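quick one before i forget lol
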Amino acid sequence: MTKKILIEGMSCNHCVNHVSEALKEIYGVKSVKVDLKGKNALVELEEDVEDEKFKEAIEDAGYEVVGIEKL
């Protein structure tokens, strides 16, 4: 399963790394690919993860989640 998380507030590669590390720490996340230009993260999951966990991790890192899509 893959989810696309739409994120506001990222402005540089440091932001990309910060978001990526925050998402990788969530149990059940297999891989993360953050796209600075597209303002999103593609998260591949080993098992379903509640959207709220993504929102918490990203907001704790200092960014805003504007949407989550299941692909």
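fyi The chain has a mean pLDDT of 97.
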